[in-house]
Recover the amino acids of this structure.
């Protein structure tokens, strides 16, 4: 069911692998997404098998985009904080192209979500410096300046109190440590205040599954920069990947 206005995106995450056809004009899903748990052993072979299964469920046979929760340079994975370490060095773009015979674009998950927010979401009408962060298993980041992405920023690995920020303030930490929203917001305050001082952004956008509950923690933050929930909720990864893949294929 490939058509010129549809693309396909897959989002590889620490807990789930999700995919959907995307209406590229509107920047929204063209059909309900599929989600399959990330295999306990998140090795390249196991994860790639799930990616292929997601494509198969939609019988997708066109170019597609795929996110990865680590640094991606020219399709090659060079960090794997929340998935199996054997990913480092894998050319995921090449692996997926060879197995599907399609043109594949692989991109960092937060960069993909950031681009989608810039094109279709909360940052659509904003010029200047926009920082998109995703709060999930880890913390992902994307920096855009007038709509152009600076790829592979890794703000989740900045140090706060001798911890990497994502080990201190990710949404997964709130859940594991059963932190109150107030307590978690204190941690987020430190993180965003630090970013604000260093980058002087014009807007912060907060994505990840927890952005659905933004009203519980964003009003508790005290920043000079506006901070808003992601307009595309947790779908930006899929949408951005589909968009980038279509752009490249064109
Ligand atoms: C990774 C990033 C990723 C983020 C969100 C971090 O641990 O280093 O590349 O974007 O998690 O998945």
């Amino acid at each position: 069911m490939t058509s010129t206005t549809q693309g396909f995106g897959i989002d590889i995450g620490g807990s789930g692998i999700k995919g959907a056809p995307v209406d590229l004009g509107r920047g929204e899903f063209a059909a309900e997404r599929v989600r399959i748990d990330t295999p306990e052993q998140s090795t390249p072979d196991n994860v790639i098998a799930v990616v292929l299964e997601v494509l198969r469920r939609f019988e997708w046979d066109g170019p597609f985009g795929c996110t990865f929760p680590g640094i991606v340079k020219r399709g090659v994975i060079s960090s794997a904080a929340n998935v199996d370490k054997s990913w480092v060095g894998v050319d995921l773009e090449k692996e997926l192209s060879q197995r599907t015979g399609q043109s594949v674009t692989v991109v960092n998950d937060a960069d993909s979500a950031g681009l989608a927010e810039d094109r279709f979401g909360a940052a659509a009408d904003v010029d200047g410096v926009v920082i998109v962060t995703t709060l999930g298993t880890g913390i992902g980041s994307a920096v855009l300046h007038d709509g152009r992405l600076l790829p592979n920023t890794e703000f989740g690995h900045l140090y706060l109190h001798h911890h990497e920020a994502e080990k201190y303030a990710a949404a997964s930490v709130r859940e594991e440590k059963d932190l109150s929203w107030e307590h978690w917001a204190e941690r987020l305050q430190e993180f965003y205040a630090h970013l604000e001082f260093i980058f002087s952004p014009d807007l912060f956008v907060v994505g990840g599954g927890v952005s659905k509950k933004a009203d519980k923690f964003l009003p508790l933050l005290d920043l000079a920069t506006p901070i808003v929930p992601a307009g595309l909720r947790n779908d930006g990864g899929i949408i951005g990947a589909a968009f980038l893949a279509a752009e490249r294929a064109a």
The first strand starts at residue 6 and ends at 12. The chain has a mean pLDDT of 96.
